[in-house]
Each structure stands twice: as structure tokens, then as C-alpha cells.
Design brief:
Rossmann fold, 7-stranded mixed β-sheet, globular, 204 residues, single chain, 7 helices, 7 strands, alpha/beta
């Protein structure tokens, strides 16, 4: 079974905030694709739901830890009993999260990269002791008229404020449309090949 992790912060106050884009996307996909109801998994400290994307069986995981301790919910899913089992589990892991360096409405698939300064991804890398897993980075930033990404200006304080504000209705509409493509990308990633998924969806 493929494990898809949506990063964010738990709790009502963080619901639908931009920093929770990973959680938002997986919730949208789970609803659209008729996954099981979300349930609390005490061992993982996470909400989980199961279903299929095409013929691919997936378990969606939403850590109930705060962002910078997300790895605690992922580590139990990566066995340490054998190297083969560990490699297979990592090969079936996808982490979905927000990225200010990409414009809203876009996403990128990548593999075996550093955290890029994202605390949730860094926590996972440290806990599973590897960066050899797939990521889907969700764009958040507006675009200039020329199509360039326009990150929030004003330093760290303005950036944090932008990330912790909730998505506006037009932004949420973009995410709903984008979630369909992301579901297709995850299915292709495993049903066909990572190279094909990256070639098709990273060029959009």
C-alpha cells in the first residue's frame, strides 16, 4: 500500500491555512475519491483514511503532531527489520506539502531531495533517516503579470502571517481543481513510472 502524508498543523485554528496545503489537498482528494472516513490512529498520532487512486491502494496520513514534529507520525510506517522492507516502504512514501517558491495552482513532484528549509520535511528526514522518498510540493505564492512567482515581502514576520492566513475562496477553488491533477499524478507515479509522472506534471 502507498503511504501519502499531508503536512500541516492540527487544530481548528490552523484549518485551511496556507501552511496546511498538504492536509487540505489530501482531504479534498479523499472526499472526491470516496476514501474511508478519517479515523485517529493512536500508534501514528495521525488521522488516516484508505482508498484507491485508480487501482492503486493508498493510505492517506495527516500527522496530528505540529509541523516540526511530523516525522513522529511517519517513522512507524518505515520498518527497520530489514533493508529490503525499509527500501520498499520508502519507495511507496509520498509527502505532500506547501512551497512558497511555486505559484498557486502549480505543483512539482520530486525525489531524494533535501528539506529545502521546510520543517515538516526535515523532521521526516531525521526520523526515517533517509531523504529517499517522493515529495509533491504545492505552490502558494501569487504571480506577477509576467508569470513570475511573487513571494511575500517584508521579512520572516510577513511570511509567517501569509502562511498562517486561511485560503481565500478563489484560492480554495484553485486547490480543488489542482487536487484532481495531484490525484492523477500520484496514481501515475506508482501505476506507471515516476519519470512519466514528473515529465507530464512538472511541465505544467
Amino acid at each position: 500500500m502507498h503511504i501519502i502524508v499531508g503536512l500541516g498543523n492540527p487544530g481548528k485554528e490552523y484549518e485551511d491555512t496556507r501552511h496546511n496545503a498538504g492536509r487540505v489537498i489530501l482531504m479534498l482528494i479523499a472526499k472526491k475519491c470516496a476514501f474511508s472516513d478519517w479515523r485517529k490512529d493512536g500508534t501514528l498520532g495521525a488521522l488516516v483514511a484508505e482508498g484507491k487512486l485508480g487501482k492503486e491502494k493508498c493510505m492517506f496520513v495527516l500527522p496530528e503532531n505540529f509541523m516540526n514534529t511530523s516525522g513522529a507520525s511517519v517513522a512507524p510506517l518505515i520498518p527497520s527489520s530489514s533493508l529490503k522492507a525499509r527500501k520498499q516502504a520508502l519507495a511507496n512514501l509520498v509527502v505532500v506539502y506547501d512551497d512558497l517558491d511555486l505559484p498557486l495552482g502549480s505543483f512539482r513532484i520530486s525525489y531524494n531531495r533535501s528539506s529545502g528549509g521546510h520543517n515538516g520535511v526535515e523532521s521526516i528526514i531525521k526520523k526515517v533517516k533517509s531523504q529517499e522518498f517522493y515529495r509533491i510540493r504545492i505552490g502558494l505564492s501569487p504571480q506577477t503579470p509576467s508569470g513570475k512567482t511573487k513571494r511575500p515581502k517584508g521579512g520572516a514576520e510577513k511570511t509567517v502571517k501569509f502562511l498562517m492566513n486561511t485560503f481565500k475562496d478563489p484560492e480554495m477553488a484553485v486547490l480543488k481543481k489542482e487536487s484532481k491533477k495531484i490525484a492523477e499524478a500520484i496514481e501515475m507515479l506508482f501505476a506507471e513510472s515516476a519519470n512519466k509522472a514528473m515529465s507530464i506534471f512538472n511541465s505544467n
